[in-house]
Write a structure and sequence with these properties.
- The chain is of the alpha+beta class.
- Helices cover 30% and strands 24% of the residues.
- It has a five-stranded mixed beta sheet with strand order 7-6-10-8-9, with helices on one face.
- Strand 8 and strand 9 form a beta hairpin.
- The protein is elongated and about 70 Å long.
- The chain starts with a helix and ends with a helix.
- The N terminus is likely disordered.
């Protein structure tokens, strides 16, 4: 039995649609592949460190794990990137190791330049900090998960507290203590940082720091024509003007 013209037309139309779908699928897949997957996008920025501003070379102390890039300009351009070794030495091809740990970044740059001049002549040098070292910091006291946490140097103390699960109930917000390896201390005042915009009240962490969160103790009350009247934790030596700043000012 011969198929009717209507059935032939239907079969031809079905074949045409199927062909179009088959041919269109790879193109659609290619368009979808033009945009990188979220995991791929994250991989591009995984090694980046967010900073609040440029590193001050006269303040920043170089330590093991920091990466420096040395560029030499002459008849040709040569670039070397190396990490400071655990012994505190910068090892760059073509020159002896340079002891840079414990120096400011500015001092380390000048010392490396001096050593480079012994090896290379009639050339110019550029030395930059290419990457910050990672350090371990103890976060103890009134946090939800006390322990050792890893971060880059210059990470604000508040971020380490967040890594430790945040403040526990009854923990101090204004009398948190950061103890340096040499015994020096600095105070973290989260209320002053968050409410008064004082970035110095949230100092960056360094190698070997211990962040200790004590229990909150005494309180003072700010009332009247301030933006945020209420009870605030007492800080030894704080004057009325400082407390008003924390309470949002008039």
């Amino acid at each position: 039995m011969r198929p009717s013209m209507k059935n032939v037309a239907r079969a031809a139309l079905l074949c045409l649609v199927t062909s179009l779908v088959t041919l269109g699928a790879p193109a659609a897949a290619q368009r979808a592949g033009d945009e990188p997957e979220p995991a791929e996008r994250e991989a591009h920025v995984a090694g980046m460190v967010a900073l609040s501003g440029p590193v001050d070379e006269h303040v920043y102390i170089v330590g093991p794990g920091d990466r420096l890039t040395v560029t030499v300009w002459g008849t040709a351009v040569r670039t070397f990137t190396a990490a400071v070794s655990p012994e505190g030495r910068l090892l760059v091809a073509g020159m002896p190791g340079v002891d840079v740990a414990g120096l400011t970044l500015a001092e380390a740059k000048e010392l490396v330049r001096d050593r480079l001049r012994d090896v290379y002549h009639d050339v110019e040098f550029s030395i930059t900090l290419a990457g910050l070292r990672r350090v371990q910091v103890n976060v103890l006291g009134g946090v939800r998960a006390p322990g050792v946490y890893e971060a880059t140097v210059l990470t604000p103390a508040s971020e380490l507290i967040d890594q430790a699960g945040g403040l526990a109930g009854g923990a101090s917000r204004r009398n948190i203590v950061v103890t340096r390896r040499d015994g020096a201390t600095s105070r973290v005042d989260l209320d002053r940082y968050e409410y008064a915009g004082d970035v110095e009240a949230n100092p960056p962490i360094l190698d070997g720091d211990v962040v200790f969160v004590p229990a909150e103790a005494a309180f003072v009350v700010a009332q009247g024509a301030v933006a945020r009247p209420g009870e605030y934790e007492f800080v030894e030596g704080e004057n009325v003007g400082s407390l008003i700043d924390v309470a949002g000012g008039f």
